[in-house]
Amino acid sequence: MGQAVVALASITLDTAKGSVTFSNIDQSFRDLILVVSQATQNDPYRQYRFRVNGDSGANYNQIRMYGTGSGASSSAENNSTEILIFNNGAGSALASMVTNFMDYSVSDKHKVLIHRADAPDAITLAEVARWANTSPITSITAYTPAGEFVVGSTFILYGVKA
Amino acid sequence: MGVYSLTKSGINNWVKYPTFMAGNEADGDLELINTTVLSSSQASVVFDVSGLGSTYKHLQIRMVTKSTTTLWGAIRVNGDYSASYSWHSMIGDPGISSVTHQSGANDPTCRWGLVDTQFGAFIMDINDAFSESKYPTFKTLGGSANGGYMSLNSGSYYTPNSPALTSIELYVESSTWPQYSRFSVYGLRG
Fold it and tell me: Is some CB atom of chain A closer than 8 A to the CB atom of B113?
């Protein structure tokens, strides 16, 4: 039957950068999985955000559950200009993240992300986000609004067949 | 191997492949078993997984779907409608984390997540789906990001006899799955 998950692209930073973009994404798969191992510098809040297809409009909705060591919480943002994953305070530990972009290549529904993220010194988190647009996702930009992703951060994109 | 000519002239059904490995892809340990995309609404989706235990150890189900109002998605297996399931859910509702559960093996259904009026996505892992000595467990993460509701769920199918899965039925309580809903089953070798 062949493998269902295929590596599409991989980026390892050899210089610190504020953003990473996967563009012209192969549209022959059903889902995407983005696996990230990263840390940020020069950012007091260690932030991690997404946009798709270059859309900076108020078209993103998200809800999360997370624990920071002081308790379990849930929060949400609607009609946001970005998908917010991390905004959890200073720290230096590497953060591990896996994001599933479900049904990214179809045009009959909004696009939904399922996200798991962990920064061992600060937070463990699960999140669901929705891009309120039926267009297929052709590019993904991961960025930190302040500071940069450090050298050695890795971003690997996989396609999932269906 | 060499390429003598790059012209398409005289070639029918020309297809461009990204690599010379075309048609020779290696088998992987995670494989797609089946996908259903609904062309119209349907009460449930059933996957026949009988006989797959000789190939796969675990299953993963990837779902993108919605409902007419906020309702529970649920699973039944092996055509068993008896009180043989247990489940536990942690729900994120804006500003609130709540927990609900069905303890003991006395629920006729196994809930796996809250489905809302916008398309949401869920990924369910079924460990030891074909073991005759272990109860299959269902772990689901997902939600709809429609002003609320995501959930982390666990469930199990308790039966003293033949717990190995032969069929999986996915349905939404008191409603139907709408057009464009997608359900995919993957097998993981082990």
Answer: no
Q: What is the CA radius of gyration of chain A?
A: 15
3-class SS of residue B95: coil
State the CB neighbour count (10 A cutoff) for residue B55: 13
Residue type, A89: G
Query: How close B38 comes to chain A (CA, Å)?
Result: 12
- Substitution target from A63, A68, A70, A158 for chain B, most B beta carbons within 10 A: A63
Tokens describing residue B45: 């989706």
Q: Look up residue A34 and give its amino acid.
A: L
Which one-letter amino acid corresponds to residue A130?
R
pLDDT at B108: 87
The tokens for A56 are: 């900076």
Q: What is the ipTM of this complex?
A: 0.94
- Nearest chain A CA: its distance from B42 CA (Å): 17
For residue A79, what are its two tokens?
A: 């009609």
For A148, what's the count of Cα atoms within 13 Å in the CB-facing half-sphere?
Answer: 8
Indicate whether A83 pLDDT > 70.
Answer: yes
Residue B61 has pLDDT above 90, yes or no: yes
What is the rounded distance in angstroms from the CA atom of residue A75 to the CA atom of residue B97?
A: 9
- List the single residue in A3, A30, A128 with the smallest CB-CB distance to B150: A128
Q: Is B136 exposed, middle or buried (0-12, 13-18, 19+ CB in 10 A)?
A: buried
- Please give the DSSP secondary-structure letter assigned to residue B72: E
Q: Are A103 and A139 in contact (CB under 8 A)?
A: no
The three-state secondary structure class of B137 is strand
Alpha carbons A91 and B171: distance in angstroms, whole number: 43
Do strands A19-22 and A48-52 pair parallel, antiparallel, or not at all (unpaired)? unpaired
pLDDT in tens, B132-182: 999 999 999 999 988 778 999 999 998 877 789 999 999 999 999 999 999
A130 vs B29, B32, B146: nearest CB? B146
d(CA B152, CA B159) in angstroms, rounded, equals 24
Q: What is the pTM of this model?
A: 0.90
B26 touches chain A (CB under 8 A): yes
Q: And the tokens for A45?
A: 């809040």
